Amino acid sequence: MNTLTWIITACLGLLPYVFNRLLHIYLKRPFSPSAFTVIVPIICAILYPIARFLPEPNITSDSITLAQHFVGGGFISALYYIYFIRELKVRLPIFVYFLVLYAFVSMMGVTNELLEFTATRLHLYSLDGTDTWWDLLANTLGAYSIFSIYYLVIRLSGKKLDR
User: Fold this and answer.
1) What CA–CA distance (Å, rounded) separates 138 from 157?
2) Is the pLDDT higher at 68 or at 61?
3) Model confidence at 60, in pLDDT bands (50, 70, 90)?
4) Is residue 163 situated within a structural domain?
5) 21 Cβ contact list (under 8 Å, min separation 6)
6) Is residue 119 exposed (0-12), middle (13-18) or buried (19+ Cβ within 10 Å)?
7) Does residue 59 sit within a domain?
8) How far apart are CA 73 and CA 20, in angstroms?
9) Contact present, 9 and 49 (Cβ < 8 Å)
10) Would you report the helix, strand and coil content of the chain in percent, each value rounded to 5?
11) Which residues of 124-159 are buried (b: 16+ CB within 10 A; e: fewer)?
């Protein structure tokens, strides 16, 4: 793996914990990290490099990194979304959870595409930017699939989303 992949992996593991801590300070809420607080960023940091090596379905000649974005973009976005819902104890109607997930995965996906664009323009990394729309679609589908599974499991177990 290249240096940029290691940097992104480290950021995926560390930044959510830091943001979580800062949000608790800003919101004046006590911060008491649980196993969930530590495990989710570790899982996401592991998923990112794994996603880079997944085989591609090659739906069209334009869809170069569908599997990578479905797992690396979508799964990670949904896991962090769930992470912040639970950590901040956010309670919303279910349709609002899905609407906010769309905004969250879109924000994460656009940020990723801008980082890819910047890395390519600065000659840090060479990426083909012709599949951006496929990447954003894969991110969204991956996030909705994981969040839907999580929601169904939580719903069937009788628990609440924010716990």
Assistant:
1) 29
2) 68
3) low
4) no
5) 31
6) middle
7) yes
8) 20
9) yes
10) 75, 0, 25
11) eeebeeebbebbbbbbbbbbbebbeebbeeeeeeee
Q: What sign has the CA pseudo-torsion 123, 124, 126, 127?
A: negative
How many domains does the chain divide into? 1
pTM, two decimal places: 0.85
Question: Other CB atoms closer than 10 Å to residue 22's CB: what's the count?
Answer: 11
Separation between Cα atoms, residue 144 and residue 157, nearest integer Å? 20
Rg (CA), the chain: 16
Amino acid at 28: K
How confident is the model over 89-112, as pLDDT tens digits? 888 999 999 999 999 999 999 998
**Segments forming the whole domain that contains residue 112:** 3-157
DSSP letter for 37, please.
Answer: H
